[in-house]
C-alpha cells in the first residue's frame, strides 16, 4: 500500500475568502448579541446604557 505524497496547496484567494466570511459572520453574530442585550437592558431598566443614544 503506497501513499502518494502530493502536497495540497490552497490558493491565497480561498484563504482570503475564508477570512472575510469568518469576519462578516462574527460581526453579524456579535452585532445581534449586542442588540439583544441592549434591548433586554432597555426593557428591564427603562433606559439605554450610557454608550447608547436615547
TrEMBL record:
Q: Which UniProt keywords apply?
A: Membrane, Transmembrane, Transmembrane helix
Membrane-traversing stretches: 21-44
What protein name does the entry list?
Answer: Uncharacterized protein
Amino acid at each position: 500500500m503506497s501513499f502518494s505524497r502530493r502536497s495540497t496547496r490552497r490558493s491565497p484567494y480561498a484563504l482570503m475568502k475564508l477570512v472575510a466570511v469568518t469576519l462578516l459572520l462574527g460581526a453579524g453574530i456579535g452585532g445581534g448579541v449586542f442588540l439583544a442585550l441592549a434591548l433586554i437592558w432597555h426593557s428591564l431598566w427603562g433606559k439605554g446604557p450610557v454608550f447608547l443614544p436615547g
